[in-house]
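The instructor's notes for this session suggest beginning with a concrete chain rather than abstract definitions. Hand out the sequence below and ask the class to guess, before any prediction is shown, which regions might be ordered.
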Amino acid sequence: MAAAPTTIATARPAVIALALGVVGLAAGLAATLGNGGLPGAVLMGFVFWIGLSVGGLGLLLIDHMAGGSWGAVIRRPLEAMVSALPVALLFFLPVAFFIPQLYPWADAAYVEAHKLVAWKSGYLDATWYVLRSLLYFGLWLLAAWIYLRGAREQDAADLGRAGLIGYRLKATAAVWLIVYVLSMTLAVTDWTMSLTPEWWSGIYGLIFMIGQAISAMALVILTMVWMARRSPRVDGLLTEKRLQDLGNFLMAFIMFWAYVNISQLIIQWTNNIVETNTFYVLRLYEQPWQGLGVYLLVAGFFLPFLILFSRWVKRARAVLAFMAGWALLNQALHVYWYVAPEIGRAGLPGFGDVAIFLGLGGIWFAAFLRSLGARSVVPERDPRLLAAEHAHHVTEPHAAGPEVRHV
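After discussion, reveal the predicted structure:
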């Protein structure tokens, strides 16, 4: 029999996050309005925070496809990320407003002077840019609605019907995962790759998607550790083995992130044509981009890989939470490294960029926390969770003695 539903009080943290977000946006607006830095700051914040929601959707789909008790345990943080998607979509409104300031292809004189961009002008058009973005948003919102509605139905169903609902969600997850991959590839092509309209890369979308997976898994780890300190239910489910599984996912995603980044560099460099290698000439030979690139290589891959290779690190909550927070920071810097040189930034993030980024993040976190606290900390009727809790109870020592039954 399933345990009684338990929730975590998140109203106060959500209000604090919202207040900090408003203050951050106000400070960011004051710092960037006079120097023209607002459009780029909003774009970078939008790309990162919507990446957390859509990356959470991707992991939720994988969760339903893969099965396993670990997937049931982390469903609530993933569903909370997906629930924050409508808020992240609102961040696109100022991006659409700033198209003329952000994208060279929106300038007719620039297009006329660059034949390759003129050839792409049928695609690189402000109206089509907005319409395509609305299509991506519509697909993601539809997937979010289907899976969040299914979660609510499963919570309210009896055990037999809950299993059928879980099977239905699993059966369609692969299709929606393909939709996510295709739509996100096109989305980042529009939003960030077209900042340099003469440059292109076939791996670009994959780089951003694996970055979203790292960010989403890092936030899952941080959230689960935070919840375990406030809920005995989560504390009991977040065993060392499951924590190690989450750490393995984080390490694997970081390894693949490094692989696709290096693959793109090798392909672009060996092409040896002006339209493609200038992207890396700027980032590998000019400061501060060279220094930030070295940091991302060392602190974004080598050190996390070596540290997360330790089984002890992945089983220690505080240490793994630190590594997750570090990975989240590195992904924010990776977005900056990709986007900032193309929007006129000459150095590391300034106060305005940071304030806008944190302001948007505060609003996103308010929505995330509100959703997280609105439902039980675990999906009560998920058959995987019921099996995991049954195994956990029957393997506990009996009160009368030290004997342990293994199932």
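Then share the key points. The chain has one domain: 11-98+133-387. DSSP finds 20 helices and no strands in the chain.
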